[in-house]
Amino acid sequence: MEKFSLITYGCKLNQADSELILGLLSESFQKTSENETDFVIINSCGVVEKTERKIKKKIEELKKKNKKIILAGCLPLISKDIIKKVDGVLGPKNLLHIKEAIEEIKKGKKPIYLEEENLNKSKYCRVKVRLQKNSCIVIVPISEGCLGRCAYCATKLARGKLKSFSIEGILEEVKFALSLGFREIHLTSQDIACFGLDYGEYQLPKLLEKIISLPFEFRIRLGMGNPQHFKQILNSLIEVYKSEKIYKYLHIPVQSGSDRILKEMKRGYRVRDFLEVVEAFKKEFPDLMLVTDVIVGWPEEKNSDFQKTVELIEKIKPRIINITKFSKRPNTEAERLKDLPDRIKTKRSRILDELSKKIKEKDGKGFVGRLEEVLVTKKGKKETYLARPPHFRAVILKNAKIGEFLKVKIKEVSVNYLLGEILQPN
């Protein structure tokens, strides 16, 4: 059996695409380390320049080892000069050609699949890989592309406009995963909140209702969604979130606390729209795990704009802040803007990072002594296991079994996790 190696960069959507690649190759190829194979597949991300530099450096290292490289994902559609550095290319909408690409390379050809294709990946089950021994988590994409026109975003150049997968196809994939023993379903997308809008209506609440009606014991973690779309489905979404099968976890990016900057970014919402969604969820679910994204150092960001971001974060107290220093990407509107000095970006990033640490420290203290029902999801470091309670904060356990639901007591806290003790059944 031929061997291959797979390296993944980027978000949950990229991880899901890597699962698709694994599923497509699992019957004919054996996955191994990059040192033991001739073929290395790099599933790339092109969101920020720093990641692009990492990928280019990795390609150089692999080429010195005489490896054949297939570059998949978004980067070849964003920075096309990278195509000449590899042996084959697959865009995010062309992954179903992975076997063909390998065969062409073996014949001395250079396959390049970057054309838009009307292939519904939801018809090809990404989870047809045997259940891993160290995890019961599966990632299920529900759409491709988005409806945004953000001035800085290069991902839309690669993934295109919104293409929602069919509810029936998603349900089939989820049921198959549950039948294999997966117990934590991560629904993901570039913007999960606008699911179905390309068919004329918001369909996320409807999709969730159908999934939670499946006769299995499991949990759902919802991916990132933008404020302007969450706002349109706010009441119906909160209602379906009341199900015990859905983690009280909300990933909603704000990017800036300044309406002026949001307008320049062409984000499509105002700070008050973001706050309306966040405050409604926090009111209904006091233990909500809130996650947001912030871009620091936008070219036109003044100190006063940044201070508004700091004040917003202090107000909403997100458990996690994904902080990104602005970097220009090719063929975006923001590429023409005059960049801020890196020292300013770094300073602002550090300020938010310190604020995030303080919020996490205070957040964890409120859970000491709490009794929680958790799902053990995967193996942790050394002899520990990672578990998730309804609010999704990480709970570290000993002597657990992946896939089981347990009653635990929270004994200690750290900045990044809660330490739990398993309660013996009566």
Describe the secondary-structure layout.
Blueprint: E1 2-8, H1 12-25, E2 29-31, E3 39-44, H2 49-64, E4 68-73, H3 75-78, E5 88-90, H4 98-106, E6 112-113, E7 137-141, E8 143-144, H5 155-159, E9 163-164, H6 167-180, E10 184-188, H7 204-212, E11 219-222, H8 227-232, H9 234-241, E12 249-251, H10 259-265, H11 271-284, E13 289-296, H12 303-316, E14 320-325, H13 342-365, E15 371-379, E16 384-388, E17 395-398, E18 405-413, E19 418-422
Parallel strand pairs: 1-2, 1-3, 3-4, 4-5, 5-6, 7-10, 10-11, 12-13, 13-14, 17-19
Antiparallel strand pairs: 8-9, 15-16, 15-18, 16-17, 18-19
Helix pairs in contact: 12-13
In short:
By secondary structure, the protein is α/β, with parallel strands linked by helices. It contains 13 helices and 19 strands. The longest helix has 24 residues, at about 340-365.
Main sheet record:
6 strands, parallel
For the record, give the distance between the C-alpha atoms at the N and C termini, rounded to a whole number: 51 Å
Give the CATH superfamily of the largest domain.
tm_1862 like domain
Computed structural class? alpha/beta
Task: Please provide a written account of the structure.
The chain is of the alpha/beta class. It folds into three domains: 2-113, 3-Layer(aba) Sandwich (Rossmann fold), CATH 3.40.50.2300; 123-365, tm_1862 like domain (pyruvate-formate lyase- activating enzyme, Alpha-Beta Horseshoe); 371-422, Nucleic acid-binding proteins (OB fold (Dihydrolipoamide Acetyltransferase, E2P), Beta Barrel). 34% of the residues lie in helices and 22% in strands. It contains 13 helices and 19 strands. The longest helix is centred in the C-terminal third of the chain and has 24 residues, at 342-365. Residues 121-125 have low confidence and may be disordered.
